[in-house]
Design a protein that fits this description.
Elements: H1 2-14, H2 26-33, E1 38-41, H3 45-57, E2 60-63, E3 72-78, E4 81-86, E5 100-103, E6 120-131, E7 137-148
Parallel strand pairs: 1-2, 5-7
Antiparallel strand pairs: 2-6, 3-4, 4-5, 6-7
């Protein structure tokens, strides 16, 4: 029984974005039509990265959810990336996500304070590692903005 539970848990974790019955949802259908294995939400980016790893997450269409993701505001531009951080987190489901770097789609510009585009979808690109101003190691998950609906 214990082996079966471990196997089921592993299967669910490896297919978290497609195992909860939403495979007929418009988001899933769109993701599959664009060649993705499934979709997930910006709010789940950290847990998806931990559960799936970067390689699998690159094959998942990332969407901006209304509860958490829509609260992400442009904080600053660093090279070609825009660093987003959650704005007002009261009454949201955000937890743990401090910031995300986004490589904007061609022709898209963000000014400080702009919200992340909810109509776009995003692809996980990787992790930028560095050091914070106080010397602690830090990492930022990087997304590429692919399109606007």
């Amino acid at each position: 029984m214990k082996k079966l539970m471990i196997l089921v848990a592993a299967l669910i974790a490896s297919n978290a974005w497609a195992s909860d019955g939403h495979d007929s949802s418009p988001q899933y259908v769109k993701a599959k039509s664009l060649g993705f294995n499934g979709y997930s939400w910006l709010a789940a980016l950290d847990s998806d990265y931990k559960e799936m790893g970067g390689k699998k997450l690159q094959k998942v269409m990332i969407l901006v959810d209304k509860d958490c993701g829509s609260n992400f505001k442009a904080l600053q531009r660093v090279d070609q990336y825009v660093l987003f951080t959650p704005g007002n987190l009261k009454n949201t489901t955000c937890s743990g996500r401090e910031r995300v770097a986004v490589l904007p789609a061609k022709g898209v510009t963000y000014k400080n304070g702009d919200y992340i585009n909810e109509d776009s979808y995003y692809v996980f690109m990787g992790v930028l590692k560095g050091e914070s101003t106080d010397g602690f190691p830090t990492q930022v998950l990087v997304l590429k903005q692919v399109s606007e609906k």
